[in-house]
Specification:
The complex is a heterotrimer of chains A (about 350), B (about 260) and C (about 290). With about 350 residues, chain A is mainly alpha-helical. In chain A, about 65% of the residues lie in helices and about 5% in strands. Chain A has a domain of about 230 residues. In chain A, the strands form two sheets. Chain A has a two-stranded antiparallel sheet with strand order 1-2. Chain A has a two-stranded antiparallel ribbon with strand order 3-4. The longest helix of chain A has 27 residues. Chain B has a six-stranded mixed β-sheet with strand order 6-7-8-3-9-10, with helices on both faces. A four-stranded antiparallel β-sheet of chain B has the order 2-1-4-5, with helices on one face. Chain B is globular, with a radius of gyration of 19 Å. The chains are: A mainly alpha (about 350), B alpha/beta (about 260), C mainly alpha (about 290).
């Protein structure tokens, strides 16, 4: 049953645009999906290596700005040197945004993993704030608070297939869904491999992990690069879907949203960010008929506190445990590692 | 068994090592070596600097002076994981296992050094990676059987009885394929039958040609199993010899009586 | 040159409130090992309380400052009592998540209570600035500096010269041992959190009349407080005081000579540079290993 759950979920979500009439709700799902990708990337750092990155929105925003500027083109002068960039296709923008966000992940990883715990958290926040202030003040490049409007939508295809420009919500929905599936498979393969095991080992007991030969820097930086790049992809998709971005994308609240999604769903689980993301992506649509945005945020804050007190592991592990108890399969205990089954290789 | 070891070359050498913490001298001018295939015990009263010596040898602590060499290569400035990759692996007194991870997966993590997975291969789930993963799992079973905890493979590391946790700690270290193993008080807190099992394991490892450096308080065990014993007191070596030499050494007797320890 | 002396005086005045903000945060981190994300909200609370007491109720300016500090301490105690006390001994990530939750709640409660429109607090002090040579300062800012120096001194005396301070320092050294010696560690934690929150609120009460009061003013304050604390070394009170003045100078120089848009970026650049070269902060004593 559990094995088919991911396929059932994909099939269900693939069918949504076929029967959903409410276009606003479809739009919500697209944006939610984009945030889910970002939350999944955060989960790799927070859940699997145990490093709380509170500057994650920086990677998202960098992906968005790089992608937007690549496809819009820009012209600026640095120290008297005139640099002009002609517009490139949106897809190239998303790829470049992913790469540059990944490079930022590398830098932050290198810089921040000299320090851990509280220091790491503060370094990541600082990084995001510096990037936000640059986006606000480098008006020549980013248009500052006036935003970058008219970002072209994604165009997919090859010369021999013809091109399709994704103007509609439904088309973007499928692109986002496909990206989520890709990201899921990518993360699943990594965390179930020796790479993921090394990351989890560092999270569980760094001293012991190094004593069996795990390099702290290598694996934490690797996680930061993949995580940053994936958040960058999400940012790129966001820019081309919303078609306008301003420095508000770097808001600390966006990072907090991602953190809440991961914590609520269950950090360090594959399905956690998906479940948490869906809840916090859709909740505003349901709540907005009853309460204002401030009350919504108060509820989210309270929920976060409640989760820490009541379900510190998050929803997914709790449901899993309930399910095992229900089916009477008491032998199956949850290991911090997410390996399929250790019994397979028994000879 | 000791005659063969005496003939062999030293593979681990601690040369003029000193460690100071601010004004406090934890180790002053320590010199000793361990030869291929030998089992050497490092003993001494509490606070003599045994664990500090381990930390220096395995790269967790930088010596203030002196150097440690392993197979002729200086370990100074190497990070712990780099020391491990040379084949010198340690266990810990307290944090010896990953508590929230199953026994099987503990050892799988221990095999880290032996995995040659490529990131791209992993992401693409290439058949070669899957074969390598299956081979790794086979190796985990071998190590678990060697140590004798294969029937507990699905238990959480932290839920094992104390003695078995120490065995798992050794299994983790063995998984890193060491040629020399450093064991930090492996039988402390074990009951007699657990200690007996552990001694059997040590003998098996020696039969496999592992070199072992042991820090231990259990004197009957140390006296029974060691080729050579190095005695530390107040950060300096006061004796270095065979168990019978150590048992009759006046300085050693003085050091232990002075501390009021009755094991010796 | 004249411009430089004006910058220095401005920095000195901001530095006093920054130091208050930093000392409050570093006290809490040093003694309780908690990364307090609500700190900026206590700063905003201080400013709103100042608006409430001085502008709405029309109380005396200085009495209002005192009331704002008391309000900050009260809210701080409640946070400590309801959220942190039940989670005593939890790891730093857990308490950090709790504090983020509390921060979001506090900020939006403020937004709900006072609305999103900025409030200004009129100063009762003379409009005419104080002019010394090439430098001119408003009397309000002179008062801000005076009060913040007074509060820094009072905190210093409290920690170094009183019995309570002694118990706090003992807890700071080693909570377990302090408990064995008969210190009521729980009471010390609540007092520390209240005191730290009070100092944050004091900074807000002082700067509220200088700038304007908005619901989101706490965000930057929190982040700046982190920068100050990092500069001084986490848990180092003297370091935080010096760090406060250093950040103010860096901001003034950055705003004056680079671009005013990057005033707020200085703190974060400082954090990154400091952590790159001296991760334990500029004034940290080296810790013994093992």
């Amino acid at each position: 049953m559990k094995r088919f759950l991911p396929y059932l979920a994909v099939a269900f979500f693939a069918s949504v645009p076929l029967w959903l009439q409410d276009q606003y709700f479809l739009h919500t799902l697209v944006v939610t999906g984009i945030f889910i990708i970002a939350a999944m990337s955060l989960n790799l750092l927070l859940g699997y290596t145990g490093q709380l990155s509170l500057g994650h929105v920086a990677f998202f925003g960098i992906g968005a700005y790089v992608s937007a500027l690549t496809s819009l083109g820009f012209s600026l002068s640095i120290f008297g040197v005139q640099i002009t960039h002609e517009p490139w296709p949106a897809v190239v923008g998303v790829i470049l945004g992913t790469i540059i966000a990944g490079l930022c992940g590398y830098l932050i990883g290198k810089l921040a993993f000299r320090v851990r715990g509280a220091y790491f958290v503060i370094v990541t926040i600082s990084f995001a704030e510096v990037v936000r202030l640059v986006s606000l003040n480098w008006v020549e490049l980013t248009n500052g608070p006036l935003a970058l409007p008219g970002i072209p939508p994604l165009t997919l295809g090859f010369e021999w297939t013809g091109f399709a420009t994704l103007w509609g919500k439904g088309q973007n929905y499928y692109v986002v869904l496909a990206t989520i599936v890709l990201a899921y498979v990518l993360i699943k393969r990594i965390v179930n491999s020796p790479y993921g095991r090394a990351m989890i080992a560092l999270r569980e007991n760094e001293t012991l992990a190094t004593s069996v030969g795990v390099s702290v820097t290598k694996y934490l930086v690797l996680a930061a690069v993949i995580s940053g790049a994936m958040a960058g992809t999400a940012g790129g998709l966001y820019a081309h879907y919303i078609q306008i971005i301003d420095p508000m994308v770097f808001m600390f609240l966006n990072t907090v949203t991602m953190v809440i999604m991961v914590i609520t769903g269950g950090k360090g689980t594959l399905a956690g960010p998906l479940v948490g993301g869906l809840i916090f992506g859709i909740a505003p649509v349901i709540l907005r008929d009853y309460v204002g945005p401030e009350v919504q945020w108060i509820l989210y804050g309270l929920l976060m506190i409640l989760i820490v007190f009541v379900l510190p592991e998050g929803i997914v592990p709790a449901v899993e445990r309930w399910f095992t108890r229900k089916t009477g399969n008491s032998a199956a205990k949850r290991s911090a590692l997410v390996l399929e089954s250790s019994k397979g290789a028994r000879s | 068994m000791s005659s063969a070891a005496v003939a062999a070359k030293p593979i681990l050498a601690v040369e003029h090592v000193a460690v100071h913490f601010g004004g406090l001298i934890a180790i002053s001018d320590m010199n000793f070596d361990v030869r291929e295939g030998e089992l050497v015990s490092l003993i001494g009263p509490n606070g003599a600097g045994k664990t500090t010596a381990f930390n220096v040898i395995t790269g967790f602590l930088k010596p203030t002076k002196g150097r440690v060499t392993f197979r002729g290569e200086s370990l100074n400035g190497l990070k712990p994981h780099e020391v491990t990759s040379l084949g010198l692996v340690r266990t810990f007194q307290r944090t010896s296992v990953f508590e929230k991870i199953s026994v099987f997966e503990n050892v799988l993590i221990g095999l880290h050094r032996r995995t040659k997975a490529s990131l791209l291969g992993t992401i693409l789930a290439l058949p070669s990676e899957r074969r390598a993963e299956a081979a790794l799992r086979e190796e985990v079973w071998e190590i678990l059987r060697l140590v004798g905890i294969d029937h507990q493979a699905d238990e959480m590391g932290g839920s094992l009885p104390y003695g078995d946790q120490r065995l798992l700690g050794v299994a983790l270290a063995l998984a890193a394929n060491p040629s020399a193993l450093l064991l930090d008080e492996p039988v402390s807190g074990m009951n007699a039958s657990e200690t007996g099992r552990f001694i059997d394991l040590l003998n098996k490892l020696r039969a496999n040609g592992k070199t072992i450096l042991l820090v231990e308080h259990d004197m009957p065990m140390v006296m029974g199993i060691s080729d050579r014993i190095v005695v530390l007191n107040y950060g300096r070596i006061i004796a270095n010899g065979t168990p019978s030499q150590i048992q009759n050494d006046p300085d050693v007797i003085q050091a232990y009586l002075g501390q009021g320890v009755k094991h010796a | 040159m004249d411009q430089l002396s004006q910058h220095i005086v401005n920095a000195l005045i901001m530095g006093g409130t920054y130091a208050l903000l930093g000392i409050g945060l570093t006290l809490i981190f040093g003694i309780m090992r908690i990364v307090n994300f609500t700190h900026g909200e206590l700063y905003a609370l201080g400013a709103y309380m100042m608006y409430f007491f001085a502008t709405i109720l029309g109380l005396n300016f200085f009495v209002s400052i005192a009331f704002a500090i008391v309000a900050g301490m009260a809210v701080g105690s409640v946070i400590e009592f309801t959220l942190l006390r039940p989670k005593r001994g939890a790891d730093i990530d857990t308490t950090m998540l709790l504090m983020i939750g509390a921060w979001i709640v506090l900020q939006n409660v403020e937004h709900l209570t006072w609305g999103g429109i900025a409030k200004s607090i009129p100063s009762p002090l003379p409009e005419q600035p104080l002019v010394i040579g090439p430098v001119s300062i408003s009397w309000l800012r002179v008062m801000v500096l005076g009060v913040s120096l007074f509060l820094i001194a009072a905190t210093y005396v409290l920690i170094n010269r009183t019995k309570l301070g002694k118990a706090m320092r003992a807890t700071f050294q080693d909570g377990g041992t302090a408990a064995l010696m008969g210190v009521n560690v729980n009471a010390i934690y609540t007092t520390t959190f209240a005191l730290g929150s009070g100092l944050g609120a004091a900074a807000g009460a002082l700067l509220g009349p200088v700038f304007v009061v908005t619901p989101t003013m706490g965000d930057l304050a929190s982040l700046k407080a982190f920068a100050i604390v990092i500069l001084g070394g986490l848990g180092n009170i003297t370091g935080a005081a010096i760090g406060g003045f250093m950040l103010a100078f860096a901001e003034e120089i950055g705003a004056g000579y680079i671009s005013s848009g990057y005033r707020d970026a200085m703190g974060f650049l400082i954090i990154i540079v400091v952590l790159l070269f001296k991760p334990t902060g500029l004034f940290a004593r080296s810790e013994r290993i093992g």
